[in-house]
Amino acid sequence: MALLRAREAVMGRFRPMLRDHDLTEQQWRVLRALTTAPEMRAGQLASVSFISMPSLSRILRILDDRGLILRRNEATDLRASLISLADDGAALIARIAPLSEAHYGEITDAYGPEALETLYRMLEDLTERLEVRPAERDDPGATT
User: Fold this and answer.
1) Is 101 helix (H, G, I), strand (E, B) or coil?
2) pLDDT tens figures, 39-48
3) Distance between CA atoms of 116 and 108, rounded to whole angstroms?
């Protein structure tokens, strides 16, 4: 519950900004993830944005309809599509990013840079300790 409360406190700073640009949190995560590579397959995008494939498919349709992303078939696997930012998507990110960074700055000021860095390290450590490793997923009785 403490993690959920903290998430809500953080996201409460971002939601109004995203609403002003007619974006959901998940749509913003997808757009931001697409800034990290020229193109991504849907599975990779789902993984880096922490969104399930069914939800991602719906989000991609919406972003595509808005002209914010581009999709093209992969040359080696015609069933797979590669997703990238459209010019309008990049422009939207350019408009929102400074506002987003200002919110991160407010959070850093409120919590303190050292405490925030410690929190990031602790959350990364917690994630690493609790992540299910592929061998454990395939064999629930496996030990590491």
Assistant:
1) helix
2) 999 999 999 9
3) 7
**Tokens 């590491």 found at:** 144
pTM above 0.70, yes or no: yes
Helix or strand or coil: residue 17? helix
Counted domains in the chain: 1
What range defines the domain where residue 108 resides? 2-128
Residue 92 near residue 68, CB atoms below 8 Å:
yes
H or E, element range at 141? none
Residue 140 located in a structural domain: no
Domain harbouring 86, CATH code? 1.10.10.10
pLDDT in tens, 58-109: 999 999 999 999 999 887 876 778 999 999 999 999 999 999 999 999 999 9
